[in-house]
Amino acid sequence: MALAGKVALITGAAQGLGKAFSEILLNNGAKVNLLDINTVTGKNTKLEFDRIYGAERTLFTSCDVTSETQLQEAFRTTMQTFGRLDVVCNNAGINNENKWEHSINVNLISVIRGTYLGFQYMSVERGGHGGVIINVASMAGLFPMSFGPVYSGSKHGVVGFSRSIAEITKLNNCGVRVNVLCPSITDTDILKTIASENNMGQFAHLANIAQKTMETVGILKPSLVAEGFLQLVTDTTKNGAVMRVTMNRGIDYHPYKQASL
């Protein structure tokens, strides 16, 4: 997929991975609607991008992804402003075992809703141009994380849901691909919450294990994860792919045996 003139919508785009994803798309000629609940940081990010890419290339939309109404309106605003939609990245995520219901709402339910909205606007069956949806999970969505079971469970859900939806797209030729991005621990604001007693809740006694895990696996730079993201967006042969990004292996794909139920 060539990105010049294409339009993307990215949740959690004000900082961290979402900002890195937005910038790499802008670098390749796309336009981006930056969605984030953090209005101040989001507006500042847009101003930063405006100075480099021009104000007409981005839009900032304040959006709580757990609100169905706000998310639907953000998609409508994207279409009204840019006239099309080609890339959706459901990136917004939090780590809070103490408020685990909210974690599931942000990490999984909003991803499902964002995926369905992506199909609504991009599917060729509904008059769209086709496109790609990238759902951001985590290495914690491929392996158990003892100090964050709800976070890990929500990310396992993202992987399973995305792979299942991708199988459907292979059957109905709707023109929309769905891929999953599973980075290891990355240098973002979530990093501060991994060993935080306030966020770990009843698992606070495992903070030392969380700290040792970070020291063992290392901390990724958002720019490396963004390189993997760009690959999933532009490589039209990838549908249902689960990309891993780790310090040890760099960018690679999680292998699955072919199975049927």
Lateral arrangement of strands in the main beta sheet:
3-2-1-4-5-6-7-8
Chain oligomer state: single chain
Number of helices: 8
Number of strands: 8
Would you identify the regions where 5 or more consecutive residues have pLDDT less than 50? none
**CATH class designation:** Alpha Beta
- Shape summary: globular
- Report how far the terminal alpha carbons are from each other: 32 Å
The fraction of residues in strands falls at 15-25%
Tell me about the largest β-sheet. 8 strands, mixed
Rounded to an integer in angstroms, the radius of gyration calculated over CA atoms is: 17 Å
User: What is the residue-averaged pLDDT?
Assistant: 95
SSE topology string: EHEHEHEHEHEHHHEE
Structural class: alpha/beta
In CATH, the architecture is 3-Layer(aba) Sandwich
What percent of the residues sit in helical stretches (DSSP H or I)? 40-55%
Q: In the CATH scheme, what's the topology name?
A: Rossmann fold
Looking at CATH, the homologous superfamily is: NAD(P)-binding Rossmann-like Domain
* Domain count: 1
What does this structure look like?
By secondary structure, the protein is of the alpha/beta class. The chain has helices spanning 16-27, 39-53, 68-82, 100-122, 149-172, 197-200, 207-217, 222-234; strands at 7-11, 31-36, 58-62, 87-90, 131-136, 176-183, 242-246, 250-253. The protein has one domain (7-253): Rossmann fold, CATH 3.40.50. Strands 3-2-1-4-5-6-7-8 form an 8-stranded mixed β-sheet, with helices on both faces. Helix 3 packs parallel to helix 4. The protein is globular and about 50 Å long. It starts with 6 loop residues before the first strand and ends in an 8-residue tail after the last strand.
